Amino acid sequence: MALNSGPPAFGPYYENHGYQLDNYPPRHLVNSNAYVPYSAPYSPSAVPQYIPRVHTHTSTPAEVHLRQKSSSGTIFTSRTKKIICVAMSIGVILIGAVIAAIFLWKFVKNSCPNSGIECGTSGTCISPANWCDGISHCPSGEDENHCVRLYGPKFILQVYSSHNKSWYPVCQDDWTDYYGKIACKDLGYNMNNFHSCQGITDDSGATSYMKLNLSAGNVDFYEKLYNSNVCLSKAVVSLRCIECGTVMKSNQLNRIVGGTNAAPGEWPWQVSLHVQGVHVCGGSIITPEWIVTAAHCVEEPLNNPRYWTAFAGILRQSVMFYGTGYKVQKIISHPNYDSKTKNNDVALMKLQTPLAFNEKIRPVCLPNPGMMFEPTQTCWISGWGATHEKGKTSDILNAAMVPIIEPWKCNSRYVYNNMITSSMICAGFLRGKIDSCQGDSGGPLVTEKNSVWWLVGDTSWGSGCAKINRPGVYGNLTVFTDWIYQQMQANR
Ligand code: 4AZ
Prior knowledge:
Blueprint: E1 2-3, H1 61-72, H2 78-110, E2 117-118, E3 125-126, H3 142-145, E4 148-151, E5 156-161, E6 166-169, H4 177-187, E7 196-201, E8 209-212, H5 221-224, E9 225-228, E10 235-240, E11 260-261, E12 270-275, E13 278-285, E14 290-293, E15 308-312, H6 317-320, E16 326-333, E17 347-351, E18 378-383, E19 398-405, H7 407-410, E20 424-427, E21 434-435, E22 444-449, E23 452-461, E24 472-476, H8 477-490
Antiparallel strand pairs: 1-21, 2-3, 4-5, 5-6, 7-10, 8-9, 11-19, 12-13, 12-15, 13-14, 14-17, 15-16, 16-17, 18-19, 18-22, 19-20, 20-24, 22-23, 23-24
This protein binds 4-(aminomethyl)benzoic acid (4AZ).
4-(aminomethyl)benzoic acid is lined by residues 16, 18, 435-441, 459, 461-462, 465, 472.
C-alpha cells in the first residue's frame, strides 16, 4: 500500500497486470443482472445465433457466356429469358419465405410459450407459477435455487413470489430460527454458522408480504409461503446467516486516519495468500471456508489450488513464515473475467479446512442488493502490498482510508478515460499519495455502515501507485454478491 509516497511521478508508469509467474502467457464482461430469480448473465446465449447468409453472385460477362452455352448450347430467345426471369423471381420469393419461416420458428422455439420461463439455458420452459414453489421442475433445479435474498443494510429477508413475479419481505408472524436456517442454507451458507433472525419494523413501505402458512403441513419451506397484504406483527424478518462485519471494540482503538500499520484484530477478515512461501495477493474472509480475492491473482498457472496457502489473523509476513496456513481446496474465477480489461476481476477460494473464528479472524459482510455506497462513504483498504511504486511488499499489514470516486469522475479523460466498467469501483485521491499498490491485489476495500463492515470491493488494478489522477480500481462487490452466493451454494 502506497502511503504518502512523496511527489507523484509522471512519465512512463507501471501498468498493473497482476502478479505473474515468469514466462507464463497472459490470457483472456459482466452484466450482472443480479437479483432476478434466476439469471445466468455469464452464460452464452441459449440459442445458436442464426446469421442469415445471403450468397450474392455477380456474374462476369464471361461467365454468362459460358453458362448460356452449357445449358442449351444455343443463344437464348427473349421468351426463354422471360421464363428464366419469372422462375428466378419465384425462387427468390421462396428462399425469402423459407428464411422468414426459419426466423419465426427460432423465435417461437426460444421464447417460452404462454410467458413460461426458461430453465437457465437448457431450453426447458416451465410455468412462472412453478418458480420458487418448493418443487424442482428444471433439469438443474434452477427454478428453486435463487428464491431468497437478503436486501439492504438491514438484511431484510425477501422471497420471490412466482405468482406476482416480484420480491417481497417476509412477515415475522410465526417465523422461527428453523425457517431462517433453511433460507440461509438456500443462499449457500452452512447452517452451523447461523447467527440470528429478528423481527424488525419495516420502514421500506412494503404493503405486501410473504407469510408462512403453518397449516400447510409437512411441505417444502417455499410451499408454505404465500403472498398476503396482512402482517399482524407489523415486523419483517431480518436474517443474519453469519455474524459478519464486526470488529472487537478493543481492536478499533488504534485506527489512524490517513494510513498506518494495522493493529491486531483491526481488519480481521484480511488474509495473506501465499505461493511457495511468498505473499502474492490479499483476500477477504466471508465464511469459515470461503475467501474472496481477485481473478487476476489466480490466472493460469496459478489457478491450481495446490499452489496456494492462506494466512489469517497474522499481521506480519515474517511471522507467517513459521506458521502452516490453510490449504486451498478449490479456486473459482468469475466466468466473465477479462484479463486485458480486468473486467469482473473477482475469484473465490474454498479452504480445505474451515477457519476457526476468534477476535483476530472474522468474516466481513457481502454487500446486499439494494445497498447504496455513497461517494461520501469513507472506505478502507488494507494489505501487505508495496509501500511505494515498484517497491517490496510490506512485512506488516497496512491500512488506509480512501473515499469512493464516482464512476463519471473516474472515467473522465483525465483519469481512466472510460476504462471503468460497472463491475469496477474507483477509490482513492485524485491528488495521489494514498493508494493500494502491488501485492494488495485481491484484498479488501471495506466500509462501515449501520455498525457493520461491508466488503465494497476487491483490489484490482491501477496505473502505478498513488499517482495524481490514477486512483486505485476495485472489483465492485455488490455486482458479484449474487454470483458468490450461487458458487457457495453449488460448491458446498
Ligand atoms: C497490484 O499490482 C496493484 N494503485 C494493485 C493496486 C494498484 C496497482 C497495482 C492500484 O497488485
